[in-house]
Design goal:
The chain has 366 residues and is α+β, with helices and mostly antiparallel strands. The protein is built from ten helices and 13 strands. Strand 12 and strand 13 form a beta hairpin. The radius of gyration is 46 Å and the shape is elongated. It comes from Hipposideros armiger (Great Himalayan leaf-nosed bat).
Length: 366
Amino acid sequence: MAAALIWIPLLSGLLTGLGGTKAQQTTLHPLVGRIFVHTLDHETFLHLPEHVAVPPTTPITYQAHLQGYPDLPRWLRYTQRSPHHPGFLYGTPTPEDRGRQVIEVIAYNRDNFDTTRQRLVLLIGDPEGPLIPYQAEFLVRSHDVEEVLPSTPASRFLTALGGLWELGELQLLNITSALDRGGRVPLPIEGRKEGVYIKVGSASPFSTCLKMVASPDSHARCAQGQPPLLSCYDTLAPHFRVDWCNVSLVDKSVPEPADEVPTPGDGILEHDLFFCPPTEAPARDFLTDALVTLLVPLLVALLLTLLLAYIMCCRREGRLKRDLATSDFALGSWQRLPPQSTPRSTRKPGGQPGRKWPRQVAGRMA
């Protein structure tokens, strides 16, 4: 009862805050095929005067969803390490996601249960500039997804990757947590990270170093537990520990061949040495086969039925003949005597009960 009295004012304050909060609106412009990252900072959602700094220990959690729906769009993800860290909305829109999407974000202050609403208007359009047909994806095991979403670590990764991919300008295409790709949660040991997949693209072809990493020889060495072939200096180390056995290269400069439309045939199989069906089938009369299949079991069943009826009904010998052929001692005929011959219980002179046997039974036993 006391717990209910404590939660009633808290819930009423939460509902009051939700009803009286005016949603802020921000317009953003994500691009198709490019990574979109929006940071949910505590300073944006806390109602504090301008001269008051945001307490670093204020715990705030966020809830984001597409307007009119309970969840986010399929291309957008949300992550937050803890209530004391900022939240991130990130993802890469596809051509099917072009247009206007509204994301509603609600921030909860875990200290005083204040709530703040924010509306993000996403105007998704096509990117400008040349196409990016050359794409490479790297598995970075030394970072979590929250550590590479800010602009500074992402720019540092692109700069370090420029030493391996010297030609052209690199673009960050997608960032995905290794847990979303089937990875396991690491043990709570210092230095263990979840891992993150980073996809980078460029309008220039792959360098010789990247081609050698993704070659069949390198994959064979990785299958044997050996490090892959790397003909250049690893400029990503030591800040980014890349798993070079999980590097994938995609070349979209060559258009994929269109799927051939199947041509309907006439329904007749072509001549084959292993399948030569007869051209003509002779006419057959299946009446005899049907009669044999049905009548033979019925005749056998009828004969067995007649035999069983003869044995059960015509071969009975009768009780009298059975009693005459059976010895009196084995038959125990004293149990089958008529009611007037039933033995009566008597008492002997000594006071103990006795049994008076009929004369017929006494004579037989003698």
